[in-house]
Every structure is written in structure tokens, then in C-alpha cells.
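cache lookup: miss for this entity combination. No prior model stored, computing from scratch. Input as submitted by user K.M.:
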Amino acid sequence: MINFQYVRANNAKSAIAAAAKDKNSKFIAGGTNLIDLMKRGVSSPEKLIDINLVPLKQIEMIKDVIYIGSMATNTDVADHQLIKSHLPALGMALNAGASPQLRNVATVGGNIMQRTRCGYFYDTEMPCNKRQPGSGCGAIQGYSRMHAIFGASESCIAVHPSDMCVALSILDTTIVLAGPKGERKMKFTEFHKLPGNTPEKDNNLLANEMIIRLEIPVDDLNQRSSYIKVRDRASYAFALISVASTLMVKADKITEARIAMGGVAHKPWRLTEAEAFLVGKAPSLEVFEQAAALAVKSARTYKDNGFKVKLATNTIVESLKSIS
Amino acid sequence: MNCEIDKATIKNLIVFFMIEREEEKFLTCDSRRDFLKQGSLYTALALTPAQLLKAADQNADETFAAMLEQMPLNITVNGKAHVLKVEPRVTLLDLLREQLELTGTKKGCDHGQCGACTVHIDGTRVNSCLTLAVMNEGKKVTTIEGLAIGDELHPLQAAFIKHDGFQCGYCTPGQIMSGIACIKEGHAETKSSIREYMSGNICRCGAYPNIVDAIEDVKKRGVQI
């Protein structure tokens, strides 16, 4: 690892000020992704700003909104009674990710900011537009088994690796960011971006901004949410396909549906067409299968990931069955 | 061009920086890289022999930087308090193994994928390869060496022997540290729960069934761990 300057910040303001002073600096929280990337030479910041002392670990409910600080660990959130009771998909997604050791230090903010696990991104001998803009994409012609089937571009077919973010994207989550000019809020579904011509940018966070907290409403829809994950082994592997979903059914009619998939795109992939299709229909296996077929209609596969279309279809159906 | 720098010159230069650092009194936890980059080293070199200026041209300033970039670290390992100096890039794993000579904690993948480096920090299990030593200021670390009391093995260590929970033994320290946490967290209620919550510890010999038996045995006996 190339050496770097290291400073500790005691609050968000001083952390942001330290970042603004040095263009090639990065915040470090749990470090489980960043240290990995630094060891491999994928990321080489000149300065690390340790934000572990920044007091943003709160998990609390105030007037039907759950507030989760960006420095809360994955374990803290997953095992918290408020999350288990009101946001089951979030707890399930967190516990489906990584290992207990990693979840104990990995934070909410870091989980949102984690980079893709595309092998070409990690291998500095290979071309990768995300790591080195303009160098090309090794995956498009290469080994693409883990790669995107939705929303990819000619420059990048990587997928976002987070389980937690897939759950957050169906929970009507608001993300609160702070920068040198103060705080701003954004719908969580607008935080991550598709690769387009700028795959080096994973999200819409501006320079010197940091993630402060999440705000998630407590309501019936969120309370009925669920998360399932399909992977190569029973535990401790990234998703081939994962699905977070929730349905509201009144008088045997679906009144609202939210479904998102992981392991298929550069960001958590909301199935808006399938969601619209479900509204007004009576929940049944046939309707779920029709919705799933609609969801994968726009899929574009590569050399090694054609299997994901069928796997996605089946996983969507399983997910909807589990909550209806 | 070769450029030899004698030890006395280096010593003088370090003393020069130490004095200046004392006077600075800013950000006590700030490592030195920024300071050196801002040209102070070149100012210092202007006062030193031509030989050293040549060294600076040849990036020898990086060598000085490395010497001065050590940061103070207070950390307690297995009950013993240490006052150390470490570079920011040193992981907790490398600190334990290379500086404190506690080689029981193993370096497997060094990327948080195998669990061989699992230790407890303030009672919580973590991968020591993915945390920087300097991020653990004031923390209490327990490694495999800190479990036995004299010749008396920790109950889970004894259970690993009883149930033949290892073959080559390389993953074993991590398995045991993780296993203790698994029981303490309340995740050792069933075999399937043990398997799920031990999934961050890989055993290439495939001793998994015996590892699960050892953890289950200690959990069922309800002994103090």
C-alpha cells in the first residue's frame, strides 16, 4: 500500500473542511472496501480522513420516520429492533451481505459508497473505464458472468454490489448529504447513477460531500417488505440476483407495489413497469409471472450472463409469493 | 549517480524536524506527509550539504518522509498496554504479527475474504487485515494468544482438539476467535445458525462439520467463555 497522510475528524464539519483542503483525499469509516482497494492499487488517496469519531451512529424513530446515521454499522442496523419490526427488507438484506466480521465494522455510508466487485475494475493490468477513464472495458468482451443485464453502456457493464441499497430503494428512503455549503436531501433512488459515458462516477455525490443519514418512513408498505438473494454459495457471496419487494393488497386488489433487483445493474434496479402492471390486479401466481416477464423484457445479456434472465424471472416470482 | 548519506546527517535532519514539529502544535494526529510536501524539507535541505540536495533530487526525500510519518498509537493487546509508533498504512494484522510478534493471528488472503486474521476489538470480531492500526487508538484487542490462562486452554480451544476441528491448522486461530464471538452473540443456537455466522471463516481442509461440532459443544455445555 502506498503511504498516505492520516487525520482524524471529530465532527462532520471538520471532516468536510479537511476533504475540501485536499483534492486527493478520502473519508475512511469501516475501511472494509477502501483498504482492500488501496492494497490492490485501485485507489491511492494521498490523505485519509478517519471519520470514526464523527457522532453519526444513531438509529431512532421520531414521528413515524426512522433515522439511521451514516456511521451506524451494518450489524447495528441489521439487529436493531426498530429495523426488524418496521423495515424487515433492510435487516434481511444487511444480514445477507458480507460476513459477521465485515458487518461489525462496515458502515451504512460505506455500504452506499462501496465500489463494484467487477474483476476488471480490481485488476490493474486490465482495461477498465471505471478505474481509468478511456482505457476500455475488459468485461464486455471478457468474462461477464457476474455483470449487468440492465442499464449498462458501451463503456461499463459493472453491477453495484450492495444488498442494503437494493432494500433501501423500495423503502421510500431519503438520503441526507452534507457539504461545505450545508445539507441537502435526495431520494435514495436518485443517488446512484447508471454508467453512461462516465462510469468512473458511481453516484451523484458532489466533491467534499459526505453522507450524513438516511430517513425512512414507517408505514404498512415498508413493514411488509422482504428481501431474497440468490448466490453461488449459501452464505458470504455477492448476489447473482437479489430482489427486494413489497405489496399493498386491499380487498384482494394490489394497490401499490415496489420491486427492486440487485446484481443486475450499475445501481439498484427498480422494476417500474412491473410495479405499474401489478396495481389493480388480484395477487396470483399467474399475475406475478406476467409481472416478472414484463420486468426482464428489456434485459440485454452478454457472453456469460444469459442465465440471469431466467434466474431474475424466478426470483421476482418467489419474492412476490413470499409477501402476498 | 550514487549518493551516500551518512547516518549522522540523517540523525541531524530528523532532530531538525522533531524540533519544528514540537513548535507546530497543530493536529496532533496529523501524519507528516503533507508537511513534507509543502516544501519544508527543501527548506531544510538548503541548509545541508550539497550531497543531500542530490539525494532530494533522487526522491530520497521520500525515505525521510517514511521515517517521519510514524504516528503515535496507544493500544492494548491481550491485556498489555502498548505505546507504539506506526505508519498509517500498517494494518492491525501487520502490527500484531510484525511489530508485536504475535504470529498466532494468520495472514490468509489479506483482503477480508478468508477470516484467518479474525481478532476481537473491544469484544467484537473483526478482520484485522482490513483495519488500519492507527484506526484503533485506545482500543482493546484480543488475539488467539490472549485466550489461554497459563497452561489452561480456553474451552473452545479444548473443544477444537476434542472434535478434531482442524487439519492444517492455518485457519484455526481465526475460526476460534470467530467461534467465541458466534457463541457470545447468541448465534450458536442451531447448527445452521453456526454455519451461517461462521461463513466469514474459510477452511480449505474442509473441517467444517467438526468446527460446527466444537462450537455447538461449548455452547451446549454453557461454560464461561
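stored under new cache key. The radius of gyration of chain B is 23 Å.
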